[in-house]
Amino acid sequence: MSRYVLTARAERDLLAIFLQSIELFGVPQARRYRDSLKNCFELIAGNPDMGRPASRIGEGVRRHEHQSHIILYDKVSEGVRILALVPSKSVRLLKL
After folding, report:
1. What is the CATH number of the domain that holds 89?
2. Which domain holds residue 73?
């Protein structure tokens, strides 16, 4: 079974997204969005080629758009490693 792991950066990003979502949309919606991101991580882990290559960001990095964020990840032996979660509008400015 494929799985995913989050880097420390991705964990911080996920927490920041959750906290900002609470402020903007309330707890129930923040939980739904967090859960939808986690479901997307599982989907990517099972289908690691579904994202597009993001070679400008790093060798072997792939990207998958999920609502208003882009999930950056790379393949590892047991699935995928989630590198970062960035707002769709700021991915061009990202440096890992």
Report:
1. 3.30.2310.20
2. 3-93
Cα separation of 37 and 23, whole Å?
A: 18
Torsional class of 84: left (φ above 0), alpha (ψ -120 to 50), beta (otherwise):
beta
| Best CA proximity match to 21, nearest among 7, 32, 36 | 32
Q: What is the pLDDT of residue 93?
A: 56
Whole-angstrom distance, CA of residue 24 vs CA of residue 44: 27
pLDDT one-digit tens code per residue, 72-88: 999 998 899 999 999 98
**Positive/negative CA dihedral, 61, 65, 66, 70:** positive
With beta carbons less than 8 A apart as the criterion, state whether 63 and 71 touch.
Answer: yes
How many domains does one find in the chain? 1
Number of residues that this document lists for the chain: 96
Amino acid at 72: L
1 contact partners, CB below 8 Å, separation of at least 6: none
